[in-house]
Amino acid sequence: MARRRFANAFLAAGMLLATAACADLAQAGAAGVGPADAVTQIAGQIADSAGLTYTAAYRLADGATAKIIQEPSRTAYRWPGGSLIVTPAATTRCAPGCVVSAPGAADLPPASGLITPAAVEAKLRAAAADPALEITERDTTIAGRHAACVKLTGAFEVCVTGDGTLAAFTGVLAGTEADLTLTALVGTADDADFQPR
Q1: Residue 99 contacts by C-beta under 8 Å, 6 or more apart in sequence?
Q2: Phi, psi angle pair for 185, to nearest 5°
């Protein structure tokens, strides 16, 4: 009986110590969280969204509409006058004629008005390492969805939905001002969007 009481007391003391240690870690972690961490977190959300299936419609700076259609193994970008389709088998660029090449990087022409999520992620990761940039955060609603935004003064602003889908981007892309805002998002992809046309 005495052994059982001792074991229970030892177990309770261990639990109290573990709880206190976790609380200290949580407080230390909270103290170290800053704007650069928000940039890194949003970059991580965008990276994680690469495995999603969705069709996202965007309004471009000139009022035109463009789309990003994604499945885990392929992505299509469509804008007025052109498209880019990236699959494991090939990269197809149409503007308006189509050219098929070996699989490779998805480089969108600046005239498309679009920016790839991977390019946004790369911009965010580079920015997080620059201590000179002033970073501000805000929450908003875009296309009826909650979006977290980070603005890097003098550089760009990015907003993402809760699942990491690109919700807005404003800034310079390849020397051209890019401004796109999500207008509709569904969790499906139409096979026809992956066909050259």
Answers
A1: 92, 93
A2: -145, 125
Q: How far apart are CA 179 and CA 66, in angstroms?
A: 12
Stretch 177-185: mean pLDDT: 94
What ranges in the chain are assigned the alpha helix state H?
2-31, 35-48, 117-128
Phi, psi of 2 (to 5 degrees): -65, -40
When mean pLDDT is compared over 6-10, 46-50, 95-99, 106-110, the highest value belongs to 46-50
Three-state DSSP class for 147?
Answer: strand
118 and 49 in contact (C-beta within 8 Å)? Answer: no
What predicted TM-score, i.e. pTM, was given to this entire model?
0.79
Give per-residue burial for 89-126: e unless 16+ CB within 10 Å, then b.
eebbbbeeeeeeeeeeebebeeebbbbbbebbbebbee
* Tens of pLDDT, residues 90-112: 999 998 899 999 987 778 888 89
Report d(CA 107, CA 178) in Å as an integer.
Answer: 14
Task: Give the span between the Cα atoms of 122 and 171, in whole angstroms.
Answer: 14
